[in-house]
Design brief:
Blueprint lengths: L1 H39 L4 E4 L6 E2 L6 E2 L2 E4 L5 E2 L4 H7 L21 E3 L24 E3 L5 E2 L6 H5 L14 H12 L19 E5 L8 H4 L4 E2 L5 H4 L12 E6 L1 H16 L8 E6 L5 H5 L12 H10 L1 E14 L9 E5 L2 E4 L1 H15 L7 H18 L5 H4 E5 L2 E3 L6 E5 L3 E2 L3 E2 L19 E6 L2 H8 L6 E6 L2 E5 L4 E5 L2 E5 L2 E15 L2 H9 L1
Parallel strand pairs: 9-10, 9-11, 11-12
Antiparallel strand pairs: 1-4, 2-3, 4-5, 6-7, 7-8, 13-14, 13-26, 15-18, 15-24, 16-17, 16-23, 18-21, 19-20, 21-22, 23-26, 24-25
Helix pairs in contact: 10-11
Length: about 525
C-alpha cells in the first residue's frame, strides 16, 4: 500500500510536468517554423493572439480568433494555413515584374474576405462584409470593395485607379519603367505616367519603430523602417520622382525628424537640391515639440485614422524652418581636439532640463526595455526633475557662464539654466517665450532667423512655467548666440541629445533652411464636425 501511494504520488507530480514540457517543446517548434516562414516570405506577416474584428481564414474560410495577418495586403490566415497562404497569394508589389515593355496601368489586386467594416460595393453601392463568413472582395491598392455576386470577369482585368490617394501613390509600373530606363541610360522621366500628371505629389513614409511608445511598429506596411534602412538611402528614391513634388512623412520623434533633415542636407551637398522633399511629421516621440510647432500635434496614439493622416499631408502648406549650427570649442592651451558641431532644429540648453535629459538617457541605456511607453518616459523625467529640486546641481550658473547676444554681453540674474529657442514649443508642449501671455512679447517664429533666449531659476521654476504659474526670465532675441562656460562641468543638450561638458565656448549661428509642411488643425476640426 505504501509503494502504491508513492507510485501514484509520483505520477500526479511528474505527469503534469511532462505534459507541460511537451507542450512547451511543441510551441517553441511551432514558433521556429512560423518565424522561418515570416523571414522567407514576401508578405509582411505578423502574428496576433486575438484579431480586433471578426476574421476568417483566406485559405480554409473558417472563423479564426488568432493567427497571422499581412500588414501590407491585409491577408488573414490561421496558423495551420500560413504556409499554404504564403504560396497561394501574392502580396502588393512595390515594383512590377518587367516583361520587356513599358507599363502605364495595372489591374486591381483583389483579396477575398475580411473587408473593412462599413465599406460599400463599387457596383451596387450596398454594404459589404455583412455575412458571417469569408465573403466579398477588396482591392489592396484603391481599397474598393465588391460583393461576391457583383464580381465580374471584367473587374478582374479592369485598370486600377488607386482610389482617393492616387496623387500620393508611387505605382509599381512606374518604378519598373524607370528602372528599365536607367539601364538603357535614358533620363527623360517626364514622359512616364504618372510623372506627367499635374497634381501628382508622391509620398515617402519613413518610420522609426523605436520612437516614444513604439507606435511605429503598428504603422509599418509599405514604409521605410529607419531601424533597417538609413534615411539617406531611402531618400535617394526622390531622384527618380518629379522635382519639388515629393513629400516625406516622418513617423517618429523630434530626434528622428532631425536625422531625416540631416540626410536631406547631404542631398544638397551632392547637388540634388531640385529633388529636396517637403517634410511632414507623425509624432511618435516623447516631447514632439517640433511637431507641435508645425501643427501636427503633441503625440499620436492611433486615435486618428490613417486615411485622415494622408489627407492632412495632401492639404498641408509648405513653409521654411531655420536650422542652426551649434559649435562647442573646448578650452585649454594644449587642446588639439576638433570642435564638436551639432545641428539644432528645436533648442539648446544648459542647466536643469539638460540634466534631466542626461539622467533619462543614462537610465534608458541601462534598461531600454522599460522605456516602451510615452507615459513611463514622462514619469521618469518627472522623477529626475523632482530630484533636482532638492539637490540643485546647477545652482549659481550665472557665476559660471557668460552670455553674448549678437556680440553684446548680457548681465545675467541669479539663474540655474539658460535655454536658446528656435521654435515656439519647449518641454513637451509649453510655449516658453510667451509664458503666461500677460506681457506683450512678440510670438516666437521658426523662420525669422532669430533665436529666443530665456533663463530659468531651477527645476521647480520649469514645472511652474509648464503649468502657466510663472514666466521665464526673458534675456533677449539674437541672430548669433555665444555662451562661455568658465569652470566646472555642466549638462548641455541640443534637441534632446544631452552630454556633460567642461569649460568651453558655445557658438550658435544660422546654418540653412529646411522645407517643412505645416498642418492647420482647423481643417481637421471642420471635417470632423461635418
Amino acid at each position: 500500500a505504501d509503494w502504491s501511494l508513492v507510485f501514484w504520488t509520483l505520477c500526479s507530480v511528474i505527469l503534469p510536468v511532462l505534459i507541460t514540457l511537451w507542450c512547451s517543446f511543441q510551441r517553441s517548434r511551432r514558433q521556429v517554423l512560423i518565424r522561418d516562414i515570416f523571414c522567407k516570405s514576401k508578405h509582411d506577416w505578423h502574428y496576433t493572439d486575438l484579431f480586433g474584428q471578426p476574421s476568417y481564414c483566406c485559405v480554409c474560410a473558417q472563423h479564426i480568433l488568432q493567427g497571422a495577418f499581412c500588414n501590407c495586403c491585409g491577408l488573414r490566415v490561421s496558423e495551420g494555413c500560413l504556409k499554404k497562404a504564403d504560396q497561394l497569394f501574392l502580396c502588393k508589389e512595390i515594383m512590377m515584374r518587367s516583361n520587356g515593355g513599358a507599363h502605364s496601368s495595372m489591374p486591381h489586386h483583389w483579396i477575398r474576405g475580411n473587408v473593412p467594416l462599413c465599406s460599400c460595393c463599387m457596383i451596387c453601392k450596398q454594404q459589404c462584409g455583412t455575412q458571417p463568413k469569408l465573403c466579398d472582395y477588396r482591392c489592396v491598392w484603391c481599397q474598393y470593395t465588391v460583393h461576391d455576386e457583383c464580381m465580374m470577369d471584367c473587374l478582374k482585368t479592369e485598370e486600377c485607379t488607386f482610389g482617393e490617394f492616387r496623387d500620393l501613390i508611387i505605382p509599381p509600373y512606374y518604378l519598373s519603367t524607370i528602372n528599365q530606363m536607367r539601364k538603357d541610360k535614358r533620363t527623360n522621366y517626364e514622359k512616364v505616367v504618372p510623372y506627367c500628371r499635374k497634381h501628382w505629389m508622391p509620398i515617402i513614409i519613413l518610420a522609426n519603430t523605436r520612437s516614444g511608445n513604439n507606435m511605429g511598429e503598428t504603422l509599418l506596411g509599405e514604409v521605410f523602417d529607419l531601424s533597417k534602412t538609413a534615411p539617406a538611402k531611402a531618400l535617394q528614391l526622390c531622384t527618380l520622382l518629379p522635382c519639388n513634388a515629393v513629400r516625406v512623412l516622418v513617423c517618429g520623434g523630434d530626434g528622428t525628424v532631425g536625422w531625416v533633415l540631416d540626410a536631406i542636407d547631404e542631398m544638397k551637398i551632392k547637388g540634388q537640391e531640385r529633388y529636396i522633399p517637403q517634410v511632414a511629421i507623425l509624432p511618435l516621440g516623447t516631447g514632439n515639440d517640433l511637431s507641435n510647432t508645425l501643427g501636427w500635434g503633441a503625440g499620436y496614439a492611433g486615435e486618428v485614422p490613417v486615411e485622415q493622416i494622408l489627407r492632412n499631408v495632401m492639404e498641408a502648406d509648405g513653409i521654411k524652418l531655420d536650422r542652426w549650427k551649434v559649435q562647442v570649442t573646448n578650452k585649454g592651451y594644449y587642446n588639439l581636439r576638433k570642435p564638436k558641431v551639432f545641428t539644432m532644429n528645436n533648442y539648446f540648453s544648459i542647466g536643469p532640463d539638460a540634466l534631466m535629459a542626461l539622467n533619462f538617457h543614462a537610465h534608458r541605456e541601462k534598461t531600454p526595455s522599460l522605456f516602451s511607453s510615452r507615459i513611463i518616459n514622462k514619469a521618469v523625467y518627472f522623477f529626475y526633475g523632482t530630484k533636482d529640486c532638492l539637490v540643485q546641481e546647477c545652482k549659481d550658473l550665472n557665476k559660471k557662464v557668460e552670455l553674448e547676444l549678437d556680440g553684446e554681453r548680457i548681465e545675467l540674474p541669479n539663474l540655474e539654466g539658460i535655454i536658446v529657442l528656435n521654435i515656439g514649443y519647449w518641454g513637451g508642449g509649453c510655449r516658453l517665450w510667451e509664458g503666461m501671455g500677460d506681457e506683450p512679447y512678440p510670438l516666437a517664429r521658426h523662420d525669422d532667423g532669430l533665436l529666443e533666449v530665456v533663463g530659468v531659476h531651477g527645476s521647480f521654476h520649469c514645472a511652474q512655467i509648464q503649468v502657466k504659474l510663472a514666466n521665464p526670465v526673458r534675456l533677449g532675441q539674437a541672430h548669433t548666440v555665444r555662451l562661455i562656460l568658465k569652470s566646472s562641468k555642466m549638462p548641455m543638450q541640443v534637441d534632446g541629445e544631452p552630454w556633460a561638458q567642461g569649460p568651453c565656448t558655445v557658438t550658435i549661428t544660422h546654418k540653412t533652411h529646411a522645407l517643412m509642411l505645416y498642418h492647420s488643425g482647423e481643417q481637421t476640426d471642420d471635417e470632423a464636425s461635418s
